[in-house]
Structure formats: structure tokens, C-alpha cells
Amino acid sequence: MDEIQKSIIDAIKIQVNEKIKDLQFDKTCYGKVVAIRDDTCDVEIRGEITQCKIRNGLQICENDIVLVRLINNDFSNKFVDAKLGTIGDDVAIELIGNLSLLLTTAKTNIVAAINEVFNKAEDVEDNLATHKAEIATSTQLGHVKVGQNLAIDSDGTLHAQASGGKKVARFVIGTSTAGWTKKDCDYLCDGTNDQEEIIQALNALPATGGEVVILDGTYNITASINIPKDNVSIRGSGNATTLKRMYNSTSTNSGSTARGLITLNKKSGCKIQGLQIDGNRATYTANYNSGIYLYESSNDNTITDNTCNNNRVGIYLYSSSDNMVTGNTCNNSSYSGIYLYSSSNNNTITGNTYNNNYSGIDLSSSNNNTLTGNTCNNNYYGIYLYTSSNNTITDNTCTNNNNGIQLYLTSDDNTVTGNTYNNNSNYGIYLSPFSGDNTVTGNTCNNNRIGIYLSSSSNNTITGNTCNNNNSCGINLYSSSDNNTVTGNTCIRGTGQTSDYASNQYTILLSGSSNNCNLISSNNCMGKAVVIEGGTGNSAWGNKFDNTDDLP
């Protein structure tokens, strides 16, 4: 017995029970008439006299044997319903005959109820057989009715579609090259121009947005995937979902050759998650090739847990603000792992890995951003700020770069705190021309050429940093670096013995004669005292340089 047959039988049982329940089997008994008064009479039933109403039209006499019925078992509502006979020898036969007639009537009523139910069941079965025989149409998928938010393609494939202004808010995309079939997904790619199915799914989402899920596999992308509306999520399966660049971008910000393999142009509330974007830089080398590109007020978006390798720029924000970029890996970019350009402000860049790029994190004319917990190794610049101010840079690790972090050309009022800038071939922290009013505190800058280097940069606070075992100098102020405060830092080599320093190695050095009015105080400079080569108004006092109490 299949599930459909079982369902029909269960339905019949329910309807039979309902029909039988509806039949009124009133309680009946018989007795002898002992007195008659108009429309009532007294009947002796089992030795007791009870008063009963007489059914209209029924003629009875004293000593008649009658059938007494209690309506709905209500003892206050008794009727003499039939005459069964009169006291005499043939009463028993007549009584049995009448009772048999009553039972036959009841049986007939039950059989009629059951027949009615089975007739209805036959109608259901006929309708079911008709549905089973139907083929897929634009509104029917075999015997299954297609809902308002679904439609059927010419090939019989069921897809979510518009209905009454509403669309399904989630589509799944797979590729046959990874073994997925049409039954696994809403849109099936085939390894050629795979962006076409992805774009179809994006366009099919409602105007209010929705989600496109891309299953694992490699998708060959020959044109930019432009996000067409706000509040759209594209989600992959991590590095198992690879979007591979198979074209060169141009300088355009939208359309098929837009800069990003995924491009957001004036879009907000979107989320790009769990994709591996392979820039395929060995073959496609245009300077405009970016993995993920946010352009012109693409604000309040989330870019998370993606891998963007082998691009010109891994993740590129152009005049886009208030975005969250977290947990991404952008390696082997010919320019930047992540690039914030032209007033891309108030973004949060956290927990990302940017290795083997020209610059790991690059800010150009972008302010009030938060960079925290990122790893930027083996780049030329770990973190690079160009004319960018009021940014907070904390808890990042930048090692084995040329420069760990560089603040360049009027990058002012930034906070650089709690970072690790070790083993860089040139500078751990580099403040270069006209970068002022920055706070550099609590950083570790060891084993670089110079731990912290200021060139033509003034009014900065350099405090509480550790700059040990740098090859040339712990902290170096050079060329018109004025009014800086350098306090509470540790700048030693080895164990802080004089013998740990060559003649051209320094703890803290003010180079040349153009650095003025700097305060150098309370630093640990064991093994070699602070050296000031010139300038005016510089104050160096209270710095510990040996085991004596002398603090020049």
C-alpha cells in the first residue's frame, strides 16, 4: 500500500465515524398502555407507570403494547412512537416483526452513510488519477500545483519567479564541472561564461534584495558580476567556491568590464562572503583588475571570509564608507591587498591577512577608518597611509616587509597603538614629510633597520614603545622633525652593554642640525645615551643609559 492509498483509507475512516456519529439512535423500550388522556397516556414499563406524549396521528388503546422513545436519551422527553400490538397470543410475533423493521431501517441508514462516504472517496481517487496523468505546464508541474512564487521553464525546470510583486529571496547556483545537476540548484553553470547564470540569479531576486548561494566548484568568469540592487548577499563555500578571472577589466566602474570581478556601484547593505576570487594574474594583467570593487557611495556593506589572490588589488573601496571588511585573505596582489581611496571613510578593516603584495593595506585620502588585528607580512609596505588622517591602527602585525607602516604626506592625527612591526628590512614605523599630531604608543618595533623613523614630521607623540635590536637605530628623528615628544620608550641592543653597539648604532638619534624643540625623556637607552647632532631647543633628560644613577 502506497502513501496515497493509505491517506485515502484514513480519510474514509474519519468520514464514516463522522456520519455514524451524526445518526440519532434514541433510546427505546416498550410497555403496555394503561390509560389515555388526549395527547398523552400512561404506560407501564417494567412495572412502573410513566407518562408519555402520543405521536401525532398514532391511534392506540388501553392494553396496547407500544414503543416508547426517549429523544436523545432525555427521560423528560418521552414519546409513544409506535403501536406494536395488543395483549394476546400473537403479540410476541407482531412485536418481533416491528423490531425487525426498526433494525432494518437503522441498518439502511448506516449503509447509506457509508455509501455516501465511499462515493466521495471515489471522486477523490478519480481526481488524483487525473492529476497524476497531467504533464508539466507553465502553471502545473505534473500533478503538483505550482505556487504563486514559482514558474516552470521550457525544459520543465522549476524556478522561483515573480508573482504579485514578490520573488523568492534565495537562489542556489552550482556547476556541472563539479558534479552538480539541475535538481541540486536553481541555476546550473557549465564552466563557460559562468557569470551569466550568477547574474540571472541576482536579477531574479526581489527589489528588496536576497541571497545567492554559490556551491563549491570553479566558475570561469568572463565579465564583471555587477550587484544590481541593495541588500544582496552572495555566499560561497569558502575556498571550495572559486570564481576565476578569465578577462581583463578596464577603467570603468560598471558594466561587463568594470574593475571588480564582483562590483558594487552605489549599493548598500550587501554582503560578499565565503568566496575565493582568483585574479589569474599570470594571464590577465591589466592594472584595473580587482577582486571585489566598491564604488561611489557603496556604503554599509560587509566583505567577509573571502580569499582574493593574484589580483591587481584584492579588495578596492573607492569613495565608499561605513563598510565592514573582516576575515579576508588577499595575497599576491601586484598593488594592494586592500585599497581605500578617495574619501573612503569610517570603514572597519579587521582580522584580515594581506601578504606578498606591494602594500598590504593602503589608505589614500581616507579618514576615520579603524584597522585592527590584521596581518601584513612580506609586502613592500605592510600598512601605508597617504594623506589620510584620524585613523585608528591597533593590534596589527606587520613583519618581513620593507616598512612595517608608513604615514606619508600630511597623514595627521592618526593613532598607532599596540602593533607589532618586527623584522622589516627598513623601518618598523615611518612618519614621513609633514605627518603631524600622530600618537604612536605601545608598539613593538624590533629587529628592523630603524625601529621608529620621523622625517620632516612634527608634533607627534612617541611613547611607551619597544624598539630593540634594530640594526641602525631604535628611534631616529631626521630633517626638521620638530616639537615631538619621545618618552618612556625602550631602545636597547643585546643586553644593553656599551659593547652591544657599533659606532654607527644608536638608541635614540636626532640626525643633523634641523630638528628643533623636541622632548626626549625617561627612555631606556641602556648601553648608549641619546645623541643629538644639532638643532635648538631640544631637551634630553632622565634617560637611562647605564647602571649608574646618572640620567642626563
**Count of discrete structural domains:** 4
Q: In the CATH hierarchy, what is the architecture of the largest domain at level 2?
A: 3 Solenoid
Summed up, the helix count is 3
CATH topology of the largest domain: the name is Pectate Lyase C-like
The CATH superfamily name of the largest domain is: Single-stranded right-handed beta-helix, Pectin lyase-like
* Main sheet record: 16 strands, parallel
Query: What is the typical, i.e. mean, pLDDT?
Result: 87
Radius of gyration: 45 Å
CATH class of the largest domain: Mainly Beta
How many DSSP-defined strands?
42
Q: Which strand order does the major sheet show?
A: 11-10-12-15-18-21-24-26-28-30-32-34-36-38-40-42
Structural class: mainly beta
Specify the helix fraction band. 10-25%
> What is the rounded distance between the termini?
100 Å
General shape: elongated
Unreliable runs, pLDDT <50, ≥5 residues? 89-104, 135-149
Beta-strand content bin = 25-35%
Question: Mind explaining what this structure looks like?
Answer:
This protein is mainly β and 552 residues long. The chain has 4 domains: 3-129, OB fold (Dihydrolipoamide Acetyltransferase, E2P) (Beta Barrel), CATH 2.40.50.140; 134-168, no CATH class; 171-363, Pectate Lyase C-like (3 Solenoid), CATH 2.160.20.10; 376-552, Single-stranded right-handed beta-helix, Pectin lyase-like (Pectate Lyase C-like), CATH 2.160.20. 13% of the residues lie in helices and 34% in strands. The protein has a 16-stranded parallel beta sheet with strand order 11-10-12-15-18-21-24-26-28-30-32-34-36-38-40-42, covered by helices on one side. It has a 13-stranded parallel beta sheet with strand order 14-17-20-23-25-27-29-31-33-35-37-39-41. Helix 1 runs antiparallel to helix 2. Mean pLDDT is 87; it is low at 89-104 and 135-149.
